[in-house]
Design brief:
Number of helices: 20
Structural class: alpha+beta
Distance between the termini: 81 Å
Largest sheet: 5 strands, antiparallel
Radius of gyration: 43 Å
Number of strands: 14
Shape: elongated
Strand content: 5-15%
């Protein structure tokens, strides 16, 4: 069957009326020989445009008018079903009586020779909202929803409720037109409805429950659900079956875009429109679809009513003040979000400004996870310098443990082996720590234990009361400053045990005493090497004190810098609201 109607050379032609082009280029339309074409021959089928549960839509050529139109008819298996027949006839008549620019006009309703019911209507060439929602600009989508709201309002004034408004039933034409399609389950307001008729993701609570009180506000809910999806790219009722939806509605659906999609950058005015349109109670929604259209149009035109903005700002500020009393990270985050929205609506809102200052200058009891991660990052940056300093100090200790005994003569190789082995183990652990630093930046437990072991081994090798106590104090304080709070007592315990163990072993006569009484004199007894050069001991103590003090100075400088930055940060935050007292 050819796609175009056959031409008739003998047919007369007359110029068509076209005010957009000059007469010499006007379109000419061949007149048919007669307008009396039998219904069976008038519509020549071209191809199927789509199929549904009971009906199918064909692209046909109207042989009388010489144009392409859409023909909707019952599918063959539904022709004999009286319920389907009545529903189809109702759809054709309801849609045919709704003459609106955004409602596809019905041209003809008739029956074919076999008694099958069909109707013809304008062919809409374009794409559905469901297909273009993800890439059309928000302004264009809002403009289209505004037009659909007016079309729905027109139908409501005629007493017709669509009951299946969804993105797939909103069509964008190729020339800027927007249509509300598929009136198959439309009903007169107040008429009895079927449970589950419609699309769950966009169905109002009363329609989902099978209530007979389904009126225009049910369509307003569907329009609000579409608006929610446009703003958040997420369906209001996501992935729910009819039973799940009814259950979820009983618990309450979160319909605030800022909560469901905090990164969607939804203006407060549009959020307020969306929340009102999708209120669970029909009495809390917009009274008419025109009111919803007017609200969207006011936003598009930039008409942001000051009183409305101040009212919404006060609501957000009150919510922020209430949330600020909470101690959880989630409550504080929501409070800051509410403060931001309140100030976006009314920058002079004193309650919001006071809450902002309180939140920004008073640290929370619970440190947020992101802040903890940032603390660990800074601690890792500092730990690299600490690790290098630790390896350097342990290296010097290891060198001294070798050089001093050889310079003064080794008197006991066993004690020397204990000292050098434990110090070298600590030095190697320092290198391991440098190469494999903890994610949180704090020193590992094995490093503290290694240093304590080296402290104890050096005490056994040299003397329990000379040299080593100074080393122990310096290293254990350094470890305490570089360990996390949960293990803050570990260096204290390890250092105490390391200092005490050699003395206990002396008391048990495992090792000879470190101090002996000779007359009126208390003498220190060396073990692995002679210690006759007192300036060496003096220099060692001075070096340990200097190194320890330099480390403490660096830590104190870092803390001072942190306090300085925090104080400046707090001051700058307070300068954001210098007139807070007068505003209150």
């Amino acid at each position: 069957m050819p796609d175009e109607p056959p031409s008739d050379p003998s047919a007369e032609t007359v110029p068509a009326l076209d005010i957009t082009r000059p007469d010499e280029t006007a379109i000419t339309v061949p007149l048919p020989r007669t307008f009396e074409v039998p219904p069976a021959d008038r519509y020549r089928r071209v191809r199927v445009l789509g199929t549904g549960g009971m009906g199918e839509v064909w692209l046909v050529v109207d042989e009388v008018m010489g144009r392409e139109v859409a023909l909707k008819r019952l599918r063959p298996r539904s022709d004999t079903d009286p319920v389907a027949h009545d529903s189809f006839a109702r759809e054709a008549l309801l849609q045919g009586r709704l003459e609106h620019p955004s409602i596809v006009p019905v041209y003809d309703v008739t029956q074919d020779p076999d008694g099958g019911l069909f109707f013809t209507m304008r062919r809409v060439d374009g794409q559905s909202l469901a297909r273009v929602m993800s890439w059309y600009p928000r302004v264009r989508l809002l403009t289209a929803i505004n037009q659909i709201c007016l079309a729905a309002h027109f139908a409501h004034e005629k007493g017709v409720v669509h009951r299946d408004i969804k993105p797939a039933n909103i069509m964008f034409g190729r020339y800027g037109e927007v249509y509300l399609l598929d009136w198959g389950i439309a009903r007169l307001s107040g008429a009895k409805t079927e449970l589950g008729a419609g699309t769950v993701a966009y169905m109002s609570p009363e329609q989902a429950s099978g209530s007979h009180d389904v009126d225009a506000r049910s369509d307003i809910y569907s329009l609000g659900a579409i608006l929610f999806e446009i703003l958040t790219a997420t369906p209001l009722h996501e992935g729910a079956s009819l039973g799940e939806m009814v259950s979820n509605l009983a618990d309450g659906i979160e319909n605030r875009p800022s909560v469901r999609a905090p990164n969607a950058d939804v203006p407060p005015e549009l959020e307020a429109i969306c929340v009102k349109a999708t209120a669970r109670d029909p009495a809390e929604r917009y009274t008419t679809a025109r009111e919803l259209a007017n609200a969207i149009e006011s936003y598009l035109e930039g008409d942001r009513d000051l009183a409305s903005r101040q009212r919404m700002s006060s609501e957000h500020a009150a919510r922020a003040a209430q949330l600020a009393k909470g101690e959880t990270t989630e409550a504080r985050s929501e409070a800051l979000n509410a403060v931001g929205r309140a100030l976006a609506l009314d920058p002079s809102n004193a309650t919001a400004l006071a809450t902002m200052v309180e939140l920004l200058t008073t640290p929370p009891r619970e440190v947020p996870g992101e802040a903890v991660a940032d603390m660990h990052l800074r601690e890792r940056e500092l730990d690299r310098a600490r690790s290098l300093a630790g390896v350097a100090m342990l290296g010097c200790w290891a060198i001294a443990t070798v050089v001093v005994p050889f310079a003064n003569g080794i008197t006991n190789r066993a004690y020397f082996a204990i000292a050098i082995t434990t110090v070298m183990i600590a030095f190697m652990l320092g290198i391991v720590r440098l190469l494999n630093r903890r994610v949180d930046g704090y020193i590992p437990t094995y490093y503290v234990v290694g240093i304590a072991t080296a402290f104890a081994g050096a005490s056994i090798g040299y003397n329990s009361v000379l040299i080593t106590p100074t080393l122990g104090v310096v290293f254990m304080i350094a470890c305490t400053l570089a360990i996390d709070p949960s293990r803050r007592l570990l260096p204290l315990a390890a250092g105490g045990i390391a200092a005490t163990a050699p003395l206990v072993l002396e008391w048990l006569h495992v090792f000879p005493p470190s101090l002996v009484q000779r007359g009126d004199e208390l003498c220190a007894v060396p073990r692995m090497t002679a210690m006759t050069d007192s300036p060496v001991l003096w220099g060692f103590h001075v070096a340990a004190i200097v190194v320890g003090c330099l480390y403490a100075v660096r830590v104190r400088a870092a803390l001072t810098e942190m306090h300085r930055r925090d104080s400046i940060h707090t001051w700058q935050l307070r300068q954001l609201v210098p007139k807070l007292e007068r505003l209150g």
